[in-house]
Structure formats: structure tokens, C-alpha cells
Write a structure and sequence with these properties.
This protein has 191 residues and is mostly helical. The chain contains 8 helices and 2 strands; from the N terminus they run H-H-H-H-E-E-H-H-H-H. The protein has a two-stranded antiparallel sheet.
């Protein structure tokens, strides 16, 4: 264990997503996902691209402008699983470097604390792990510590998520729905 609850959840989210990446069969890469514009390959490509940004931004202190379009398009190549493994390991290591969470990172929206960036990346990996599980027909249960983390991270922004254009409008659920169902519904996903 890292001794940091944030880094622990980050690692668990990456491990969950990774378990699904490693379960993708050869005939599933073009299967649809709950992210209606993305196939399984597109979804994995998105997460790989996000991981690739971590090292230059967090470890090297570069800006989005410095990196430019280096990670645009298909970054998976001919070995999508291996590419995921390498990008994920490098991102995990960059966030775990001593003092990394105390730094500032330069994102497209301006400066942000690296800890906040890591929290956003963690929530994104959690939600997309569910999307990927759905896309490949795997067990889509999210461990409760990750559900709780994502709810804590995303609930303050719930009212603006659909307006961002990145999420569908929230889905109504019964008041007694479980936490995972409430989380997914908040993000416009039907459990």
C-alpha cells in the first residue's frame, strides 16, 4: 500500500480497468460500449491517451501546449494491451513519485493541483472500467471503495456534467437504488 488513500484508489481503478483490458477477446475490439461514439478499442485508446499525458505533465512539468498533439489519434498501435500496460505503469509511477501530489500541473483549463488531477483520472478510470466491462460482457460491479470515491469526486459537479457535453443527462433512479446505480445514473448511464 502507498499510505495515500488517493494513490490507493488510483491504483485500484487502474487495476480494475486493466483487468478488463486483459479480458478483451480479439473479436471484441470493435464492439460498442455505453459511450455511444466509442468502440471497445476507442475506449481503451482514450484511457491510454490519458495515461500517456501523465508523465510529461506531472513528472516533467510540461504544459498541454508543450506536448501538443503527440497523443492525438490512435495511440494503441498493433499491441493495444501491451500499450495499455506500459502507459498505465508509467502514469502510476509518475503519480507515486515522492512529492508528486504536492506539485502543480498545467492542464488545458489552467493550473491545477496534481492531487486534483490524479483524483479526476481515478474517477475517469472507475467509470470507464464499467463502460469497458459492459462493452465486453464482463462483470461490471465496481468495488465499493471505488464507487464511494467516484461519488465523492463527481457529486459536487453533478449539476454541470450534462452541460459539459461529455455526459448524457442524468437518468432517474429510485431513492433506494444502490450507490453504483446512483453513480452511473448521475453520469447518464443506465445500470
Amino acid at each position: 500500500m502507498s499510505g495515500s488513500p488517493l494513490l490507493d484508489r488510483h491504483g485500484e481503478a487502474l487495476d480494475l480497468f486493466s483487468s478488463h483490458v486483459h479480458a478483451i477477446r480479439a473479436d471484441q475490439w470493435h464492439a460498442p460500449t455505453p459511450c455511444t461514439e466509442w468502440s471497445v478499442r476507442d475506449l481503451v485508446n482514450h484511457l491510454v491517451g490519458e495515461q500517456l499525458w501523465v508523465v510529461p505533465l506531472v513528472r516533467d512539468g510540461r504544459t498541454v501546449a508543450d506536448v501538443g498533439d503527440a497523443y492525438d489519434g490512435d495511440v494503441l498501435g498493433d499491441d493495444p494491451v501491451g500499450t495499455w500496460d506500459r502507459a498505465m505503469a508509467a502514469a502510476r509511477e509518475a503519480f507515486r513519485e515522492p512529492g508528486a501530489l504536492d506539485r502543480t500541473v498545467h492542464l488545458s483549463g489552467g493550473e491545477s493541483a496534481v492531487a486534483a488531477y490524479c483524483a479526476q483520472m481515478t474517477a475517469d478510470a472507475i467509470i470507464h472500467a464499467w463502460d469497458l466491462a459492459r462493452g465486453i460482457g464482463a462483470d461490471d460491479r465496481i468495488p465499493m471503495p471505488l464507487v464511494d470515491f467516484a461519488l465523492q469526486e463527481l457529486t459536487p459537479y453533478a449539476d454541470g456534467l450534462a452541460a459539459s457535453g461529455l455526459f448524457d443527462p442524468p437518468v432517474p433512479v429510485p431513492a433506494d437504488a444502490d450507490a453504483q446505480t446512483k453513480l452511473l445514473a448521475m453520469l447518464g448511464r443506465r445500470a
